[in-house]
Amino acid sequence: MKKITIILALLMLFTTSVDAQRKKSTTKKATTSSTSKNSTPKLTGEALELYEKAKAGDADAQFDLGGLYANGDGVAQDYKQAVYWYQKAAEQGIKEAQYNLGVCYDNGYGVAKDSKQAVYWYQKAAEQGLVQAQCLLGLCYANGDGVAKDYKQAAYWYKKAAEQGLAQAQYNLGVCYDNGNGVAKDSKQAAYWCKKAAEQGDAKAQFNLGVCYDNGDGVAKDYKQAAYWYQKAAEQGHAKAQFNLGMCYAKGYGVTQDSKQAVYWYQKAAEQEVAKAQCMLGIMYVVGDGVEENETKGVELLRKAAKQGDEIAQEALKELGESW
Question: What's residue 64's pLDDT?
């Protein structure tokens, strides 16, 4: 009984909320396939028709032909040819070609990787209102990738894309407001843009919005809303959302208390190496809360958490007379 009392006391040291990862804007750089010296190719059908138009200077045909080469659609995939034709179309002002050419330079598709050229072409497309280019240009400014780091410019371009409804830009803009990067720190604006992205299914935004509701940060504190958004993110595999949702079920915050559900979500997070989840799950195995008591398994989980530096797990092992 003493062992169980000590462990339960340790368990109460945990607070639900938050290990919020809201400090870094992210956007995956687009993976547009792309593209050799332009020699007269052997083409048929649509590709031949596009080639003749592109060769005659038709910008739309140049862009479309670049796409065929980039994707290997009706022609052998050839990134160098894709770059060649994207360049032709981009120089005539086709914003999608400018963006794709930027992606090629950004990733080294068919051309030497060149972040400055990537920024140049993203800028061209962004100035014409292409939302994906605006977001990536913002990311370049945020990271100082191909251009001097400038958070104000990053926030400016994120906002341009966010106002057009791009979820990733909305999330990134929320991060800017959360941290005061390039804009005045504003928790209400952070929550506003986070919610916009969360409603479009962005898991990071859903988790962060849950954190906002959990803490009353920029919104009225609301545990039901916190649990709701944690659930949304957790179902998409967001590890920290899974842990926080487990805590909600363990303590009955925003949901009916349910130790079995707590175990379920701790397990999901523990499998992704979240130390706190390993610790909580280990404790539940030791005391038999929501799961059949199994001290051996509990100690194993506590050791995993302890090795990651979790102090609660380390203390629990000490009280159990176990090393880590």
Answer: 97
DSSP H helical ranges for 56-201 = 59-71, 79-91, 95-107, 115-127, 131-143, 151-162, 167-179, 187-198
Give the tokens for residue 312.
Answer: 């609660």
Residue 39: the pLDDT is: 53
Extract the tokens encoding 42. 């052997």
Find where tokens 């390993």 sit.
Answer: 278
**Confidence class for position 43, pLDDT limits 50, 70, 90:** confident
**pLDDT tens, 83-96?**
999 999 999 999 99
Average pLDDT, the chain: 91
Q: What is the Cα–Cα distance from 87 to 89, expressed in whole angstroms?
A: 5
Q: At how many degrees (to 10) do helices 115-127 and 95-107 cross?
A: 160
> What whole-number percentage of the chain has pLDDT above 70?
87
Give the amino acid at 30. Answer: A
Residue-range domains of the chain with CATH: 28-128 (1.25.40.10)
Mapped onto helix, strand or coil, the DSSP state of residue 296 is helix
Cβ–Cβ under 8 Å, residues 213 and 221: yes
SS3 15: coil
